[in-house]
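re: ur question from yesterday

yeah so i grabbed the chain u mentioned. its 304 aa long if i counted rite. heres the sequnce exactly as i have it in my notes:
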Amino acid sequence: MEIIGRARWGARYPDGFRDAPLPASEVWLHHSVTPAPERNVADEAAAVRRLERIGQERFGGGISYTFVVPPSGRVFEGHSVHRQGAHTGGRNDISRAICLIGNYERRRVSRQQVDAVAALLRHGHARGWWRQARLTGGHRDAPGASTLCPGRYAQARIAEINRSAQEDDMPSSDEVARAVWTHWIYNRRLKRREYSETLLGSSEDRIIRQQIAPLRGEVAAIRNLVEQLVAGGEVDNTAVEEAARRGVRRALDESDAEAEADSVAAERYDAASTYDVPEPTESPESPWPPHPSATSGEGDRTTA
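ran it thru and got these structure tokens back, copy pasting raw so excuse formatting
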């Protein structure tokens, strides 16, 4: 994944306080409470430099957080991952911090931020930065903490972020297309019940169909967003998210109904195409008299 490094956003102050052990045992979610940049990467870089200046003035170690994520979902490096910051009292050595830029007691977390934090958790776990691909909690959950951080709206998304981070990587579009085609060939034509483990790692065709459900949800969300933009006015993000949930639920319901219909059709096909035909033990007697050659010993003759 792309992480915008310290040099690129223009870090000016120390890179944390000292080296800290890896992998970290904990990862905490924070919010900055500072204004959230809404326009472009240059504004976001300025917002990160503002956090760095605040951290330097308060604690003297530069930016306090390990990673910073604005509403766009871009990920910025804070202090280096192997360095100690100043984010979670009494736990700065054993933990790392992901900070959402903005006040999430008042504003909602964007879809891009949720996806970015989940992807960062997976990436960091794969790189050995932390022991688990999940958030330990919000700052308010840390032992001894007395704070509203990361804000009620961010706190409410932690379980969703962790579920997404724990999921296996979604298959590529080629893998999905291959799996759908295999489902059609094997299940519809040959009535096969199992799939090779080399496809999507599942032996149940229903699971493969469910890989499409999240895509259906995204399509429903985009449709709702376009309708709102056409109508004018402020976009209702809650309505967009609800449309996505309905899209996923509809896809799963259709999948269940299709699986049941396939099963009934397959049973009817089996009943109609299975015959118990005994093998003959000897040649049946013919009702017709034998051909003369059968008794004279003469074979078939051809004429020149």
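noticed a couple things. The chain has ten helices and six strands. also Confidence is low (pLDDT under 50) at residues 169-175, 181-206, 293-304.
anyway ttyl
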